[in-house]
Amino acid sequence: MVDWQDFLRHLIDGCFKICNNCDMKHHFKVHKFGFTLAEVLITLGIIGVVAALTIPTIVTKYRRQATETRLKKFYSVVNQAIQMSIAEKGSITLEDQNNQNATNSEYITNWYQQNITKYIKTLKDEAFNDTYYKVSFVDGSGFSSYMNGTNKIYIFYCLNFDNCNGGSFDGKNTFLFTYDKTNQQIVPEFSHQDINSLKQNCYNTNKQLRYGCAALIMKNNWKIPDDYPWIR
Q1: Which end of the chain has the least Cβ crowding within 10 Å, N or C?
Q2: How big, in percent rounded to 5, are the helix, strand and coil portions of the chain?
Q3: Which residues contact 140 (CB under 8 A, 6 or more apart)?
Q4: What is the distance between the terminal CA atoms of the chain, rounded to a whole angstrom?
Q5: What is the side-by-side strand order in the sheet with 132-137?
Q6: What pLDDT, on the 0 to 100 scale, is given for residue 96?
Q7: Residue 19 pLDDT > 80, yes or no?
């Protein structure tokens, strides 16, 4: 007679042997995968090519957007400050500086501080070479300004205050505005011209003749045109 209990015990012992190592991973063959040096170098080369093609585009796009934003903000914030001053005083008087017992820079300093400073956040301001008055804003931008013999104030806005070195307006780092005393607001120089005329002016290879770059961007809804040559 077959002892079924003994038979089952031997069957179980044969199928499931007790293992001294409880980690069962050693019962299976482990396959390790890796990359060869050639594969790594090829991958790095592809990444480098893609980066070389895309990074300049990304940088240019960022610079364009930053320029557009700062120009629009400067135009808006300063004109808002002027309107607040007018609302309090009734008007802002701009006299011929030749009738004042002051240098050019002193007259502009007094005019700006009496009418504008109260309504706009500035980091610092200073007179420069008896000719220019310079203002630095908290966002790192700023302007230098000059007043000519016809009591017209020229405002040279700088994306970075460190580039405010007098009367520069290259269409890349600095842009030209003026104070319109009739309408009592700042406006980009040549803002009365159309876009095509402004392009001819702004795209001039001589950076000292690019009077209309700020006006061009404003007329284009504060967007830099696709063919704009100075920020690429």
Answers
A1: N
A2: 45, 15, 40
A3: 160, 161
A4: 97
A5: 122-128, 132-137, 142-147, 153-158, 174-180, 185-188
A6: 58
A7: no
Phi/psi of residue 193, nearest 5 degrees:
-85, 160
- 87-91 contact pairs (CB < 8 A, 24+): 89/115, 91/184
For the chain, give every domain's residue range: 51-219
Q: What are the tens digits of pLDDT across the range 132-144? A: 999 999 999 999 9
Determine the Cα angle at 95 with ends 118 and 158, to 5°.
55
* CA pair distance 119, 139, nearest whole angstrom: 16
Matching residue, tokens 């070195």? 165
- Beta strand 174-180 with 142-147 is unpaired
Region of 166 on the Ramachandran plot (φ > 0 left; ψ -120 to 50 alpha; else beta)? left
Q: Using the 8-state DSSP alphabet, how is residue 166 labeled?
A: S
Rg (CA), the chain: 35
Q: Cα–Cα distances in Å, from 102 out to 97, 127, 178?
A: 8, 12, 21
Q: Does the CA dihedral 98-103-104-108 come out positive or negative?
A: negative
